[in-house]
Amino acid sequence: MAEHGAIIKHDQKKSPKTGAWRYMHPEVDKKKCIGCGTCVGFCPDATITIENKKAQIDYEYCKGCGVCAEVCPMKAIIMKKK
Amino acid sequence: MNKELTKYYSAGHSACAGCGFPAIVRAVLGELKTDVVIANATGCLEVTSTLYPYSAWKAPYIHNAFENAAATISGVERAYEALKKKGKISKNKKIKFVAFGGDGGTYDIGLQSLSGALERGHNFLYVCYDNGGYMNTGNQRSSATPYGAFTETTPTGKESFGKIETRKNLMEIVNAHRIGYLAQSNVAYLADLKKKAKKALETDGPSFLLVFSPCTNNWKFPTSQYVNVGKLATETNFWPLYEIENGEHKLSFEPKKITPVTEFLKTQGRFKHLFKEENKPHLEEIQKLVNEEFARIANLCE
∠ CA B193-B198-B202 to the nearest 5 degrees? Predict the structure, then answer.
């Protein structure tokens, strides 16, 4: 374990995969998404990146809160049950 | 995972789905131009980001007790100054010191250490995310809990309508220390928050940010709603955005048309009881308190 005394080192590989919390699944409608990035800063888990002008969600960490779908001005993110 | 946003505070932390403070932490730290050391008062942010044996922090971070985030960061700042004097680190190295605390660790338990650090004039930024209560222990009231809100320790029923006291005015208390920069912001207004964080980080000496952070779990609203709840708080003047720079007050946002405060209150389960017929006077009282406080701030900003 990467610890010394009471010092804990950040290790992304070991971090809990909070995507397991999710029961609603956000899906980006690539046709509607304009890549404005409004959702990016509001995501509590920083799971959204803009790639090729479209929002991309990292489902490994997304907890499925639905904030991105709520703030999207184009209504391009839809919450689905999975 | 967004690389830029997770430079200091990564994903994988265990804050509730739809929590308000992660966006605050990322927006504030995103404005850093120098190296940073972070201290954190006990609260939701601390317990969810440092769940043993994990840490979500990629920057030097000190996990300390409830009452002493400001004292801890003062000590760190002095230690770096001493190391500079001894020549152990370069004199030109710029490091910013940031402390985070919730309203429990700032308004109540950490108030004396914050006051001490502000008075001594350390070069640090204190960020208080205000979710109006002790949320990680199950919603007990704090001195930041608004009038009329339901909490575990201010239950509602026949004899009680929730919290009977009004909120403590922390901005006034911090302003009494006559520091260079302090501001009230809201996580729903990220551009405003970033602008204020930049100014606060550039301030030489102590600076302070008080940021509104809606709590999905204990304010009782759906997880998707923190931005909408936050926006309504400012649009109804419940949470005005303003800054105080070298003693000059400045309003950062003035709603074009004023929305009644009930629009904000009815989004949350903690105020549900206020909409009963017998609690009508308390609703009127809240509107009166909001109007008075906004008029007072607007007057100072003229």
Answer: 145
Q: Can you tell me whether residue B145 is helix, strand or coil?
A: coil
Contact B12 A15 (CB under 8 A): yes
User: Does A17 sit within 8 Å of B10, measured CB to CB?
Assistant: no
The encoded tokens of residue B295 equal 């008029």
> Closest approach of chain A CAs to the CA of B136, in angstroms?
17
Longest dimension (CA), chain B: 69
* Subunit contact B2:A14, Cβ cutoff 8 A: no
Nearest CA in chain B to A47: B1
- Distance in Å, alpha carbon of A60 to nearest chain B alpha carbon: 8
Please give the CATH architecture assigned to the domain spanning B21-301: 3-Layer(aba) Sandwich (3.40)
d(CA A15, CA B84): 35
Say whether domain A28-82 belongs to CATH 3.30.70.20. yes
Nearest to B250 by CA among B203, B289, B192: B192
* ipTM at complex level: 0.93
HSE (side-chain half, CA atoms, 13 Å) at B220: 14
Which pair of structure tokens corresponds to residue A27?
A: 């899906």
A48 contacts on B by Cβ (under 8 Å)? 2
DSSP H/E element including B96: strand B95-102
- In 3D space, the residue among B22, B24, B248 whose CA is nearest the CA of residue B125 turns out to be B24
- A58·B55 Cβ contact <8 A: no
CA A57 to chain centre: 5
What is the maximum alpha-carbon separation in chain A? 52
> What's the pTM?
0.95
The tokens describing A36, both together, are: 């404005």
pLDDT per residue rounded down to tens, chain B (302 residues): 999 999 999 999 999 999 999 999 999 999 999 999 999 999 999 999 999 889 999 999 999 999 999 999 999 999 999 999 999 999 999 999 999 999 999 999 999 999 999 999 999 999 999 999 999 999 999 999 999 999 999 999 999 999 999 999 999 999 999 999 999 999 999 999 999 999 999 999 999 999 999 999 999 999 999 999 999 999 999 999 999 999 999 999 998 998 999 999 999 999 999 999 999 999 999 999 999 999 999 999 98
Q: Which residue bears the tokens 């184009």?
A: A74
